[in-house]
Structure prediction request, 190 residues.
Amino acid sequence: MTTLSVTTWSLEQTAPTDLRPAAVPEGDVRMVRSEVPSPEFSRFLYASVGGDIRWTDRLGWSYARWREHLERPGVETWVAHDRGTPAGYVELEAQGEGVVEILYFGLLPAFRGRRIGGHLLSYGVARAWDLADRWPGVKPTARVWLHTCSKDGEHALDNYLRRGFRLFDTTVEDEPDVATPGPWPGAYSA
Prediction:
């Protein structure tokens, strides 16, 4: 099996004032919280957004594993809709002691390059900072963090930096070079 050298960057914000919001895109773009835990919908978002950039770690999750994850206090999915169609999402997870991780963030391929990503990220980060307001018992957010890697979109790291995230760690590791699964086989072959 061939391997791929992958650089992973870990980034953080330590105050709500660190966020530098992107401009709101033109048109009917709305952000909606997916409040009903739905393994089917979450798996659709995961596979559709990450299918062309090798998101594979959750593809083997069972329905029960998805449900267990989504029902945890402090886990939220915020979905960007472009004229009613899901365009992308951001998934947040409260991790204790006031730390919130942005577990996943991205757009479906057809919606990339339309200035939706910066707005979705800005909105998601703002929701990370006020997450405790929606979850009794969750400590107020003191830190928001995430990681991105060289397999993600070419503008991912720059988008995070423009939104006010600061780099705190970089690693390079070899990983198996797996085929991009797409939401279904062949979905991204042009």
Summary: The chain has a mean pLDDT of 93. The chain has four helices and seven strands. The longest strand covers residues 3-13.
